[in-house]
Design goal:
Layout: E1 2-5, E2 8-14, H1 18-27, E3 32-39, E4 43-47, E5 57-61, E6 65-69, E7 73-77, E8 81-91, H2 97-104, E9 110-115
Antiparallel strand pairs: 1-2, 1-9, 2-8, 3-4, 3-9, 4-7, 5-8, 6-7, 6-8
């Protein structure tokens, strides 16, 4: 899967779970554009506009993790957190908050395009 934001095309290595498979299936006919905002100085979050199956479990997330929240919110983390989430995947090559923030264009609202 890919996320395009601020001119950067990010490759996401997806998890093997029902949520990731359902998202990939939704993306096959065409891209999904999501308006995302900063939340808690740790993530960008936005509404997908549709529901996906949830496979929530208590997990810790790190910069670069792509998470499904409440079945219809997608988040891209640039810091750490721990909660009941469903991991969708991880942005390839991201190892730090600084890396992820640079790719996302820093603080503030963004438009992210999810595609396959």
């Amino acid at each position: 899967m890919y996320i395009t934001v601020n001119g950067n095309r990010l490759t996401v290595d997806t998890e093997d779970n029902a949520s990731s498979r359902a998202l990939l299936e939704r993306l096959r006919p065409g891209d999904v554009e999501v308006e995302m905002s900063d939340y808690g100085d740790m993530e960008k979050v936005g509404c997908l506009g549709f529901d996906l199956p949830r496979s929530d479990s208590r997990i810790s997330v790190a910069p670069g993790d792509v998470i499904l929240y409440l079945g219809n919110q997608i988040t891209v983390y640039y810091d750490v957190n721990s909660r009941n989430f469903t991991r969708i995947g991880h942005v390839r090559g991201v190892n730090s908050r600084a890396d992820m923030l640079q790719l996302l264009g820093g603080a503030g609202d963004i438009t992210a395009v999810f595609s396959v």
